[in-house]
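Example record

Each entry pairs one chain with its bound ligand, MRU.
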Amino acid sequence: MTIPNTIEWVGELDGYARLIDQTLLPLELRFLDVHDVETMWEAIKVLRVRGAPAIGIAAAMGMVLAVRNVNTEDFETFRAAVERAAQYLNTARPTAVNLFWATRRMQQLVESLRELPVSQIKQRMLEEAITILEEDAAMCRAIGEHGAQLIRDGDSWLTHCNAGALATARWGTATAAFYVAREQGKRIHVYADETRPLLQGARLTAWELQQAGVPVTLITDNMAATVMAQGRVQGVIVGADRVTANGDFANKIGTLGVAILAKEFGIPFYVAVPSSSIDLSMPSGEHIPIEERKPEEVTEGFGRRTAPLGVNVYNPAFDVTPHRYVTAFITERGLVCPPFDVNLRRMFGA
Ligand code: MRU
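Structure tokens for the complex follow.
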């Protein structure tokens, strides 16, 4: 793949995380070197690194940055620092479960290593963060292999937001299916929804598909109905920030509308998701915390005011799509079909 790594660790325990600053794309490809947890928190908060799996990896690396200089050999003191780091990082964004999944995984690791010297625990934390990254790349590749089987030569598929390489360690979730289909020699074309208000579709999905040589056509969000009505789309794949036990899922605002349209037009609607985004502890979608972001993203996105001063704004960053709109989930272990409450638990319950 021609896209640079979204996030990686450079050097040893005294090294740093390097990530693509996605707020600057597509105009500039610039890397941000992150040496402390506060900078990582800010990077997650303002979407320099974004997309559920990438947020999880960033949080795991953030945990390392937070505690590597804690100067103690007392396990309880160290554990308290780890706990504080997790609580802090968990406040960066509320919706993607990967953030909480990653910080909890790091905490559980520390707990399991309590007999080791603190210096060794720190080293193992770094190894775990890198493992999370490598596992994510492998899961995305597997999602791509399963997803590509659904795509026929000559198809056009639609996606919303960026569930791409930029949102993961590599390959993406939704885009992985497109990349693998291309490798298989299928001629595929993608419609990318622009994705108001932060334009992840226009800025990121269109950019990365172009970089990878996948034919892509950008549409504004309100054109999706028309391209479907005109018979231009054979399938939809989106990502997810959190899938609940009954198959409801949160994804970027606008996903619900796309799902309803797909059902109306008889177009299959797939959700590509690694197990790290599946939250079986949550029974259904109405429990998912939905991030609300600042009004300026709507009224003066990218520096130009497009609404009157003082206007009221509602800016939820995600919506919840009920499971009845989902044809199947594409996971690293294969397709999960309805009934989702039974089949998600069967596949991921352990
Ligand atoms: O606000 P963002 O850009 O982090 O939102 C990202 C999405 O909604 C993605 O579709 C989702 O995280 C899945 S990424 C594989």
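The two ends are 33 Å apart (CA to CA).
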